[in-house]
Description:
ten-stranded parallel sheet; 33 strands; mainly beta
Amino acid sequence: MIDGLVLDASGAFDAAIFVFNDGLTGFAEDDRFTNNTITCGPESLCIFVAGGPRTFIANNQAVAFGAISGLHLQAGVDGTRVLGNTIVAATPSGSSAFGGLRVRDGRGVVVTGNSVLGPWTNSVAPTHLATSRFAFNRLEGARSFGISMSRNAGVLQLMTDDVFQNNQVTSEGFAAVIARQACRNTFVWNSLEGRGGGIGIFFDATTGANVFVGNQTIIVDNGAFDCNGDGVNDPNIITGTALHGMRPDETASGAVKTIHGITVQ
């Protein structure tokens, strides 16, 4: 457990907290990081977890000054919980694929009650998750998207059977949420506003069988993906009027970074 520390990574090239589990030589699991105050610099991440299942990250305060990513979890983070953290970009931070909170490669991940504020490229950037839940988060001020799903995922790595519920999401970009490579996810009663393009949620062509329930948002539905492999595209299920055929403004891919021999993805 790391609790109640003041950690300054403003001059670091890796992260204020680094966790690695390769399943062979390192066994980082069930770790707890709570109530820490973190400063993240232009070459660093705030917290980097690579392959640490059931990690618990709660009630931390992180401020980034041009950081590559904020709380960054990848490569097998099943059962991880990220609760009640405040992650602030004091200056523009996060590459195009990352943001204040990057979570990928896991099942049963819970992300609730967090505030991700300021000019991150994306507030939250989830990829390759299943049966996970994002709820009651405040995501505000991202330059591109409040929630950016499956950006730069490489091979097809779907977001499946996840729930996005009661999140308050605003971005300065084209849309509050962009969904890519996404099947059977549920979006219910979120407040969504993309101030740059006026779009609440944009469903890319690589989406299908997602359910949207809500109101007072503009929806773009270009979904045309066969989620169950039966040769027939599975339509998204939209409550309300949806537009079709629009395209978002895309940003360039971010530079790849390696920390202790591990590629940040």
